[in-house]
């Protein structure tokens, strides 16, 4: 299992478009991914689950990935967060 601390740094936070990008990215991996924020733990492959986090800009999020391709999935998710969900272009 891989755990990472991430910060939501895009201006609008985990809104619908950013959440859809995250879920779409994860759909290509077999590993199970979980996001934890504000005392809630959700399936990171679920748009509704991620939206329920209501994670705005600056929110600290813990990512947990477990499975056969966990390293690749964790790297891809980390990169997406670091790129601010490609919204600042």
Q: What features would you describe in this structure?
A:
This protein has a single domain, classed as HPr-like (Histidine-containing Protein, Chain: A, 2-Layer Sandwich). The longest helix has 13 residues, at 70-82. The model has no long low-confidence stretch (mean pLDDT 96). By secondary structure, the protein is of the alpha+beta class. The chain contains three helices and four strands, in the order E-H-E-E-H-E-H. Residues 1-88 form the HPr domain. It comes from Lysobacter spongiicola DSM 21749.
What would the keywords be for this entry?
Histidine-containing Protein, Chain: A; alpha+beta
Write the layout of secondary structure elements.
Blueprint: E1 2-7, H1 16-26, E2 32-37, E3 40-43, H2 47-52, E4 60-66, H3 70-82
Antiparallel strand pairs: 1-4, 2-3, 2-4
């Amino acid at each position: 299992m891989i755990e990472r601390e991430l910060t939501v740094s895009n201006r609008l936070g985990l809104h619908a478009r950013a959440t859809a990008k995250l879920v779409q990215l994860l759909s290509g991996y077999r590993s199970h991914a979980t996001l934890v924020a504000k005392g809630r733990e959700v399936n990171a492959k679920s748009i509704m689950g991620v939206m329920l986090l209501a994670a705005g800009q600056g929110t600290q999020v813990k990512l947990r990935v477990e499975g056969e391709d966990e390293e690749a999935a964790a790297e891809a998710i980390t990169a997406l967060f670091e790129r601010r969900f490609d919204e600042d272009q």
